[in-house]
Amino acid sequence: MDLEYKKREIMKDKEEIIKNINKLKEEKNAIILAHNYQPKDIQKIADFLGDSLELCIKAKETDADIIVFCGVDFMAETAKILNPDKKVLMPEIEGTQCPMAHQLPPDIIKEYREKYPDAPLVVYVNTTAETKALADITCTSANADKVVNSLDAETVLFGPDNNLAYYVQKRTDKKIIPIPIGGGCYVHKKFTLEDLKRVKEKYPNAIVLIHPECNPELQDNADYIASTSGMLRIIINSNEKEFIIGTEVGMIDRIELELEKIGEKKVLIPLREDAICNEMKKITLQKIEKSLLEEIYEIKLDKDIIKRAKVAIERMLNIKG
């Protein structure tokens, strides 16, 4: 088969799938929420695209009957916690479990609670619903320091990302106890100082943006440490033209989409080309279509877990400023 013909057929199929997705969304009063690390095709069709905090807020505000969540397991669970009466679907259930979200199980929390009985527990939203239900409050990479500083305590338990704990410790007078030891994101842990030196040699004038899930030596050598939404704002509002992006490579697609909307072009350099979250890339247009059509795979959580986890999430969302 001619290669160009094959490409045209693929494009035709894609357009048909997108058309069907939009039809199903209208018929079923559904909304598609997608994380910034999702594949570009998914980003383009999402009703709302954002980081963990933005998606939490959008999930709480939506009046849709069905939420199709394109991300990893803890994100869809969070949407369900905030919308217990709505149907929350994930287009793919196999292989979409965030490894970091499962690093802080109840037994570890119990151990540290006994050791530090007066210390509140702050958990990253990148955790399971069960873990959120045991927390005093949740946080995201965009508001972790603000959440910790809002607490009336001198010592704070913080998990599971040790690098985010390091980031917070530099921005608070409180004592941060990271739990568990070694917790973190395998994608962001890939980045090294050698990577930064190598890329910076090639692009000496580029602004360095590093995610707070990255190792301390990367944070200490960044021009900016920012969540994905923070990175986007910095680039959109900057007069600089070159940026080194120290997070999952899907973020570059997101930034490019936003730059296209305002007619700007900037040079976006991945700190590592292989900084890929495999779990985030499991979702496809075909799977979204099937999920909407058959209303699979639905997120179901214990009512008591939902009730307790919702308190921790809403405490975060209610922090002003």
Automatic annotation (TrEMBL):
Cofactor binding note of this UniProt entry: Binds 1 [4Fe-4S] cluster per subunit.
Binding positions (iminosuccinate): 35, 52, 124-126, 141, 211-213, 228
Gene3D superfamilies registered for this protein in UniProt: NadA-like (3.40.50.10800)
Pfam families to which the protein is assigned, alphabetical: NadA
UniProt catalytic activity: iminosuccinate + dihydroxyacetone phosphate = quinolinate + phosphate + 2 H2O + H(+)
Cited InterPro entries: NadA, NadA_sf, Quinolinate_synth_type2
EC number from the UniProt entry: 2.5.1.72
Entry cofactors: [4Fe-4S] cluster
Record protein name field: Quinolinate synthase
Species of origin: Methanocaldococcus lauensis
Name of the gene this protein is made from: nadA
